[in-house]
Amino acid sequence: MSKMSQPNRLRGVVVGGIALAGVLAGAAPVWSQTPRRAVFVVNNVSDEITAFTVNSDGTLNFVGTYATDRAPTPIAVAPGGAHLATANATDYDIELVTIFAVNPDASLSEVASTTFPNSPLSLVWINDLTVAVGESTIGSSKIHVYAFDPDLGTLTEIDQEPSGSFNTSLALSRDGRYLYAQDSSGYLIRWFAVQANGTLSFAGSVSTSGIYPLDLVITHDGTKLYAGGGISQGGHMVLGFAIDQETGQLTPLPGSPYYSPGASPAYTAVSTDDRYLFVGHGTDATVRTFAINADGSLTATGFFFDVGLQGTCGDLQTLGRLLFVTDESTAGDGITGLYSFAIAEDGSFTAVSGIYNTDGTRPESIATWTPPPLPGDMNCDATVDGFDIQPFVQALSDPASYSVQNPGCDLNHADVNGDGTIDGFDIQPFVELLTG
After folding, report:
1. Residue (of 172, 161, 166) closest to 187 by Cα position
2. CB-CB neighbours of 373 under 10 Å
């Protein structure tokens, strides 16, 4: 008699446990936001937001397009995932900041809006009830902070802080204690302490030594901040800073600034495991991978993707082991939309499918949403059921293959008993989830 393979033995244990329990039942949590991974894209010219849900293999499901005011530009999902904010940056003096409810199916419903002085090119949620919006007025940029009341559907301004001569990007520290604001014309990055009531207090600044600090991004462990240098200083610079998590202080990382083989680095995203920085470039429209070394310094890996003609790379965002990139124009190749790439262990990235049509014109900024982990949901469909058995077995027996085949999912969903380890002790709790 031949011996069973390890995966088959594991599968037998799981299925056997189910058989003993008698029934197979699904279980799903109830959240106020969508329980599915989701990605949202603003279409700057057609004045819409497009919503997709994300499958375990990185493919996308089109949910719909949702009208907003003219020329939506920044977009962000609240920490709890129940709301999404966008703002409209037109050539008018009065703009809008708009809040949408994120429904369980990832569709959107407008719930609040307020007028805004001029050019809101950036925004970030400080918490689920407070949003900061950057007014990008040349010579006198400001950060406006609003209290959001979801019951009344109102946005009320509670603070205003000067943010330099031209502020176009905001980033919140991972612990929510500091808000960072770059100043392109002033070659500075400022940071503000976030008070208990959501207001801001200036805490410090650092010079970027004649390099534009564009599109600030903070690593998931909260210890490093990176920014593209755009066309400044020869057009190949990427900045890196260490973050003092107690004071918010920024200190240049060893070797910063770093040279990019691409032209005009302007957009940034960090892999969820903080091993790689992805940089999108304005002039040559390439997206390139940089390894983040132990000291925070960057090394170009040589891996890149060419979006198209100059200016066609719109934005970058990561979700799990996926990288999303917008191609904002059909110029040159007739292609526009949203790419979903699977990130490999070596930092290379491969499109999981063809480009996705956003059903809108000029797709630009991207926001992603990852719901709270649902133990046992191995195919990331927001339900624990029989379809999770095979990927659960694979996660236990061959975790590397699981991660490759399911780049849109978190391997740690297999840690069903919550002890921090994925092993045989998770089998019985998984069976109990399946059987209710």
Report:
1. 166
2. 12
Report in angstroms the alpha-carbon separations of 73 from 96, 108, 134, 227, 314. 11, 17, 12, 19, 11
Three-class DSSP category at 357 = coil
SS3 content of the chain, % helix, strand, coil (to 5): 10, 45, 45
The answer to whether residue 420 sits within a structural domain is: yes
Token pair in block for residue 121? 């090119």
Domain count, the chain: 1
401: in domain? yes
Strand ordering across the sheet containing 337-343: 313-319, 322-327, 337-343, 349-351
Residue 267 β-bridge partners? 280
Look at residue 19 in the predicted model and tell me its pLDDT: 42
CB 394 within 8 A of CB 409: no
| pLDDT digit string, tens, across residues 410-424 | 888 988 888 888 898
Contacts of 242 (CB under 8 A, 6+ apart): 223, 224, 250, 251, 252, 253, 296
pLDDT in tens, 81-138: 999 999 998 767 789 999 999 999 999 999 999 999 889 999 999 999 999 999 998 8
What mean pLDDT do residues 12-18 have?
49
Q: Answer yes or no: are the C-beta atoms of 240 and 274 closer than 8 Å.
A: no
Cis peptide before 257 (omega within 30 of 0): yes
Is residue 12 over pLDDT 80?
no
3-class SS of residue 356: strand
Domain housing 393: 6-29+373-435
How does DSSP classify residue 123?
E
Question: Is residue 395 in a domain?
Answer: yes
Q: What is the mean pLDDT of the chain?
A: 91
Looking at residue 249, the DSSP 8-state letter turns out to be: -
Q: Is residue 24 part of a domain?
A: yes
